[in-house]
Amino acid sequence: MELGASPRSVTPGRQRWDIKLILGRPRTAEVLAATLRRIPGITEAQANPVTGGMLIRHDMRLRATDIGRIVSRAVARVAEEPTGAGRPAPAHPAPAQAPRAGSGVVVRPVLAVGGGVAAGVALVKGSALSRQVVAVAGVAAATAVVLRKAWRGTVDTSRVAAGPGAERHALVEIVGPHRRRLYRAAALSVACQAAEMALGTFLGWTGLVLIKGEAAPLVSLGLTTASAQLWGLAGLVAAACAAVAGLSYASTLQWRRLGQDIEHDWRGRTYRHVQHLELGHLEGERTSRVAGALTNDVGQLGAFFAGPANDVLQLVTSLALLVPAFLLLAPQIAWIAFLPIPVIAWLSLQHQEKAAAEYAVTGESRARLGSQVINSLEAGATVKSFCTEGYEAERVDELSEAVQESSRQTDRSTSRHAETIRSCTTASMAGTLLIGGRSVLNGTLRFEVFSPLIGLPQMLLMRMSRLGGIADQYQRTLASYDRVQRLRALPVEADGGDGTLDLAEVQGEIVLDRVTFAYPGRSTALKDLSLTVPAGQVTALVGATGSGKTTIARLLMRFQDAQSGRVLIDGQDIRGLRRHSLRHAIGFVAQDPFLFDGSIADNIRYGSFDASDEAVLRAAAMAEAHSFIATLPDGYDTLIGERGAALSGGQRQRIALARAILKDSPVVILDEATSAVDNETEAAIQRTLRGFAADRTMVVIAHRLSTVRHADRIYVMDKGGIVAEQGTHNELLAQHGLYASLWQLQAGELAV
């Protein structure tokens, strides 16, 4: 097997690899990704079995060569496992040790040879019973080998999912406080399976009465005539059918409710944890992964118990009832009845692994086709202007043919598997009839025992065909559990000290005292910065992009904490305050404000849920939003869609500004809050904000200098997070420095 691990691209903190080992092997890909995620310094690992690609995100302190060694060791360790889905590789694997005397390396071959010799002697010289026992043992051993191979591929994944030091299996952790419902669902499933077996037995007795005129087990119940036995069996069959229907309904309902309870419980607990995560874990591309864990992965946890867990229990119950029954009542036909079990188990597991790769390829092809269709439709004007309609149609045809071919391959594989399973069960049925019939004819097996048992193994064999799907769902569940647990392990915001702010007494003086801050993996955003925002005044921050203006706002909101120095509000270090107390005292409007899917009134009232309609209207009027809201068909009840998609950028900014005004905090931070509005609207907003700014501290961050020309104090930030100039608008113009040059540039553009 070629491991073929080679880097495709290497950038600071992120690498992409091509790994042949995972190509077409979804389980191996998942285990390798889980293995890498457990290694210190690696923050994320995503594997794609369709392309054989691996995305790795890591600590910036790890060098590219370090990651290369880690990936090579992990791939080699996973490849060493018989299933190709091995145990997680440690960051520094221990050297291999020679096998000790008496270890499994020596004992297993000895036992295998000894067992084979004993079985051969029993087959050649033993009695008929010993030969039957050896045959049954052979079937059991073959089944054990198949299941053990599948189990070794799952047990290590469960250990990875549970995490180091876990004392309980991942499934036990998933069920959590819902064990009582699990026990009820399990009891109902076992009872349902027993009732189904009883129904099959009663139907066998019915055939026995029709053929021989009586069923011996019913004679002991006082039913001596054929007519009485048929009526009795009709009642038993009816009762068994009712029991099967009722128990099946009840058990299915219990399992689905268990799955729903697990999903609801895990989503609620995980989402509460996510709400308190550090903001860095919720920004950028991490958001999609967090959302995937809260939706798809949490849903998978519940889906396993809503379906596959019930199938496992029914399969185990069938084996527990049928195997002893055949060994006690009809050992002559036990081996032929259960001979297809290892074959069907092996075929199901193999088919599932192959089908997973085929479905992944089909899904990838469909995704490409869907993406191409959407892009072509959205680019309609471009396509028509360049007269490329035929070219686009050919591209869609090619992608559609790829989808068609991959779907045909998947359909052929699925059909072959289904017919192979059908052939195995039919062959088992025929063999059971032939060998059992001969045993009945030569008197070694009573017909009244043989007749009720003949159809029961087929029920078990049909359930065995689901084994591959069950194993696949089990693997998916463990992988989902691992991702959810990693999300729950992310650090939450520290609440800080026990200090609080009384909103009625907050003056709003803000001091940055020798503050230094750098985002992870980037150069310093603020270096030894000191500045003061006087209480009750309007202070502006202007400067080039990347000079640290927004970083100051984020530090004030404690979205991040400074690496050194202090941020003070009214003389108190904000790290000694509760975050909620601090944030209640500050109103914040970002350049790209977020609006929720709902009405305009709901968005303005967000965070001030008890505000009256009159207060909402006043806030909207101060933000110059009332005029355009009044023109909408439903006014303040107008639904704006996700992220306010139905509104323009300037309209979204004005609604967000109205939200901050309604909050009525003693400190307000406006980060480019009017950058998307026209000059006339901005001038009107500035006039209304002058009244709103009275007796409160306002920090205005802007690129457009006309926005801040009336501020009480202006800080001009330069790259590297330093204050280049400070003063009023007129004072800064008189200095003929950076601010003056920026003003002349913008004024000149406006004049043109």
- Shape verdict: elongated
Structural class: alpha/beta
Global mean pLDDT: 79
Strand order of the largest sheet: 10-11-12-7-13-14
Helix content: 55-70%
Largest beta-sheet details = 6 strands, mixed
Count the helices. How many?
Answer: 26
The CA-CA distance between the termini, in Å, is: 69 Å
Task: Tell me the strand percentage band.
Answer: 5-15%
Compute the number of strand runs.
Answer: 14
Radius of gyration: 36 Å
Low-confidence stretches: 83-126, 156-166
What would you note in describing this structure?
The structure is a single chain. Helix content is 60%, strand content 11%. The chain is α/β, with parallel strands linked by helices. The strands form three sheets. Strands 10-11-12-7-13-14 form a six-stranded mixed sheet, sandwiched between helices. The protein has a four-stranded antiparallel sheet with strand order 1-2-4-3. A hairpin with a 5-residue loop joins strand 5 and strand 6. The longest helix has 53 residues. The protein starts with a strand and ends with a helix.
Task: Please describe the topology of this protein.
Blueprint: E1 5-11, E2 14-19, H1 26-37, E3 42-48, E4 53-58, H2 64-80, H3 104-125, H4 128-162, H5 170-175, H6 179-212, H7 216-219, H8 226-275, H9 286-306, H10 308-329, H11 331-338, H12 340-378, H13 380-385, H14 389-441, H15 447-453, H16 456-464, H17 467-488, E5 510-518, E6 524-533, E7 538-543, H18 549-556, E8 564-569, E9 572-573, H19 579-584, E10 586-589, H20 600-604, H21 613-622, H22 626-631, H23 649-663, E11 667-671, H24 679-692, E12 697-701, E13 713-718, E14 722-727, H25 729-735, H26 738-751
Parallel strand pairs: 7-12, 7-13, 10-11, 11-12
Antiparallel strand pairs: 1-2, 2-4, 3-4, 5-6, 5-8, 8-9, 13-14
Helix pairs in contact: 1-2, 1-4, 1-17, 4-11, 4-12, 4-17, 6-8, 6-10, 6-15, 8-9, 9-17, 10-11, 10-16, 10-17, 11-14, 12-14, 12-17, 14-16, 21-23, 25-26
